[in-house]
Design brief:
By secondary structure, this protein is α/β, with parallel strands linked by helices. 22% of the residues lie in helices and 18% in strands.
Length: 337
């Protein structure tokens, strides 16, 4: 019997076997601070949240951080067409032209019976710079078939062409719901996460959470989870971010305020005010903020004003007027002694 603990048959990946010398920054200083420097390289992570919490923006910042350092980064679009993603990111003033993208969004299905073809034979990886403003049209030959096996094969082939260091799958929820054509759903997901780890890629997979949260398989399989939140506080929509888990490293477990502005994503290092709670958070020293992420100073919580003390009523300290003397000259009419 062979040694079950031996890794001699596994491919060598420096990111997995070497000591962790430097973490991978997400591009959002507040989140990097919560992760105590960033993500551990070569591992898959989940960015989860309900609709509208900013998952795609956080994931794209992660890719842009790598692209700005000259890394090869890949975005796999499964929810929104790449042209819409490009337009949305440009609204932040972000230039994502150097980011590679693979369009894995489904074709518009017709009622006609057409032969199904593998999507890898129809679509190729390109940069966002080459993406046209209009949506991709469905092939006249019929819709292309997309499965989790197809996506895995594309990733393995692409790693032979370009040595990607960062990959985003947006979203793994669509991958799970629409592209896994098998009853063994969890085994298929485990295989996908294992592939990402074996490739030695730092991967971020977005997960769409229901409005009523429940445990999901992706969060259990990922090495860490950054969860985005939103709620109404009576004045408007409020967003926050927490690190639900982060294996292999300590982290900040406190919820921090998150904002989506015209400049992108910003995270303040102060605790957001809960419903009905009036509390001043302890100040935390912040790292310098890049131009793409504008930090907002924490909201000032005014202390209650105590009423001024009320002075007691003034007392009458005047002396009473003495009575007139009697006939003997004694004041008050007393007897002389």
């Amino acid at each position: 019997m062979g040694n079950l603990c031996s890794d001699r048959d596994l491919p060598f990946h420096p990111a997995r076997h070497s000591m962790i010398k430097e973490k991978v920054k997400t591009g959002i200083p507040g989140i990097d601070n919560m992760l105590e420097g960033g993500l551990i390289p070569g591992r898959p992570y989940v960015v989860s949240g309900t609709s509208g919490t900013g998952k795609t923006a956080v994931a794209m910042r992660f890719l842009l951080e790598g692209a700005s350092a000259g890394e090869q980064v890949l975005y796999v679009a499964m929810d929104e067409p790449p042209n819409e993603v490009k337009a949305n990111m440009e609204s932040f003033g972000w230039d994502i032209s150097a980011v590679y993208v693979f369009d894995a969004t489904p074709d518009i299905l017709s009622y006609d019976k057409t032969p199904v073809r593998d999507v890898s034979t129809e679509r190729k990886v390109c940069t966002f710079k080459a993406i046209a403003p209009s949506i991709r049209r469905t092939s006249e030959k019929g819709p292309a078939d997309i499965t989790i096996n197809t996506v895995q094969e594309i990733l393995k082939q692409e790693m032979k062409v370009r040595k990607y260091t960062r990959i985003v799958i947006d979203s793994v929820t669509s991958l799970r719901r629409f592209y896994i054509r098998t009853s063994e759903e969890y085994l298929a997901l485990q295989s996908f996460f294992r592939l990402l780890s074996d490739l030695g890629i730092t991967a971020v997979l977005t997960v769409q959470l229901p409005e009523v949260p429940k445990p999901d398989a992706e969060s259990l399989m990922a090495r860490g989870e950054i969860r985005l939140h939103k709620w109404f506080d009576g004045k408007g929509l409020v967003r926050g971010v927490t690190v639900e888990k982060f294996r292999g490293s300590s982290h900040d477990a406190t919820m921090r305020p998150l904002k989506l502005t015209a400049e992108g994503v910003s995270v303040r290092l102060t605790t957001p005010k809960k419903r009905g709670e009036v509390k001043k958070a302890e100040p935390v020293e912040q790292e310098p903020t890049p131009d793409a992420v504008q930090q907002t100073p924490p909201e000032e919580v005014k202390a209650p004003v105590e009423p001024a003390p009320v002075a007691p009523p003034a007392q009458d300290v005047s002396q009473p007027e003495p009575p007139p003397p009697d006939d003997n000259g004694t004041p008050g009419g007393g007897e002389a002694t």
